[in-house]
Amino acid sequence: MTEAFERSRPTSKALFARAQGTLAGGITSELRAAEPFPIFIDRAEGSRKWDVDGNEYVDYSMGSAALLLGHAHPAIVQAVTQQAAKGTLYSALTELELRWADLVRELYPSAERVRFVGTGTEANILALRLARAFTGKPKVLRFEGHFHGWGDDTAVGIKIPWHEPPTHGLPPGAREATLVCPAETAAAARALEADSGIGAIILEPSGASWGTVPLPAGFLKGLRALADKHGVPLIFDEVITGFRWSPGGAQVTEGVRPDLTTLAKNLTGGLPGGAVAGREEILSLLDTSKEYKGKKAGVFHRGTFNANPLSAAAGIAALEIFRTGEPQRIASQLAAQLRDGMQKILRRQEIAGAAYGDSSTFHIFLGKGARGTIEGLSPVDLKGIPPRTVNALQRALRQRGVDLLSYTGGVTSSAHTEKDVEVTLAAFDEAIRELAEGGAVERL
Which residues of 16-86 form beta strands (DSSP E)? Predict the structure, then answer.
């Protein structure tokens, strides 16, 4: 399989060799690492993308879930093209960002005020700073495996073992300032009762890693009640779920209102950017005309590319479409077909595994303990699929023209079609059979 992959991608192989002498680690993000080498993409349109060797893929990465409308959507292309001709960066306010913020506030009832930032990671850094400033308490309560970017504030808890820093280079207090617990109401209650220094609670409302580890029923409502009881701001990281789960994200779908929401990816129509939205009394700490505890403003925040005209123009174009709910309906319907088809293939081939997911996502678990369901599996199980298995599945599907997002799963867009689903399921059927014959996955 590896030999066939390399033969059909000689240019990607050569470019990766060049990248290793130029880029740190040969890549610009950990998620782009792949065996035997990453693919280099030349262009993309709709649900498809083409690598530098001309290989075509049905794309389920979709810009790491940032492209609910698909690649090169005409409305986004037009908005960016028109704005680029007028200038790309002013370092000044624009009417565009007001319209953009109005759309966010329209779709998210919790968004009393909005502050734009440069990335999703920046959004979470700012949200945590705001919450800690508001409460005057230094610690953050996080949940096992939930991802909130690569900042110091959110590093502990990302990888197994959950309580250990996943990287060198963190300041000494990062671990002490982070409390990590299972995503269970009782565990969160114990943590909040035991430590009065918790000044913020943050989580992915989908469950860890965009739903790889789903949340227990009722957890979000239970957590909202606990946050209210202890007076701790509740932050929903909707960088992926935002606009994708519904026009108003997971919080509207679940009927739970957070104090702060972080947004990125689809917020900008797939361009760089993010935002923190939420309660006016918390966001007012950014107001430079007001003094807060001897500082003006109470929370320091800057950013050259915040609400830059290109991202604002693309964001407005995207949100105007998202507000209809039609892209979410189409993408969710196709994802459900994928999950159902993959589940049938695993069952027919008697593979130890399960396909699952919510909204416009799909996840594939391969391993012991799964007989068509992930019930009873822990976060360690669900996020602990052996790298050999993950790499083998990703490579087998890429060889057959299907590209996943990360781990073993992906997202759909409104540009995907039933033909894409048909092609994907045929590729998945062949890939799983090949992996089972090679011993990379287990049969029941």
Answer: 41-45, 48-51, 56-59
Q: Which amino acid is at 263?
A: L
For CA atoms 419, 420, 422, 423, the dihedral sign is: positive
Residue pair 49/403 in contact (Cβ under 8 Å)? The answer is yes
Say whether both 306 and 389 belong to one domain. no
CA 338 – CA 292 distance, rounded (Å): 51
Q: Each residue of 62-100: b (16+ CB within 10 Å) or e?
A: bbbbbbbbbbebeebeebbeebeeeeeeeeeebebbeeb
User: What digits encode the pLDDT tens for the residues 348-367?
Assistant: 999 999 999 999 999 999 99
Using only the alpha carbons of the chain, give its radius of gyration.
22
* 122 in the same domain as 58: no
Composition of the chain by helix, strand, coil, percent to 5: 40, 15, 40
Both tokens assigned to 216: 């227990």
Look at the block and give the residue holding tokens 């028109």. Answer: 82
Count other Cβ atoms within 10 Å, centred on residue 376: 8
Is residue 443 a part of any domain in this protein? no
- Please report where in the chains the tokens 């469950």 appear, as a residue: 207
Tokens of 331: 């993408």
For residue 216, which phi and psi values (nearest 5 degrees)?
-65, 150
Q: How far is residue 240 CA from its own chain's centroid?
A: 4
CA dihedral in degrees (375, 376, 380, 386; nearest 10)?
Answer: -60
Which residues constitute the domain of residue 101? 74-322
What is Dmax (Cα atoms) for the chain? 68
Structure tokens at 433: 């059979």
Spatial CA neighbour of 241 closest among 275, 207, 202 = 207
pLDDT exceeds 80 at position 1: no
Query: Which of 144, 258, 249 is CA-nearest to residue 207?
Result: 144
If one counts the domains in the chain, the total is 2
pLDDT digits 0-9 by tens, 162-206: 988 899 999 988 889 999 999 999 999 999 999 999 999 999 999
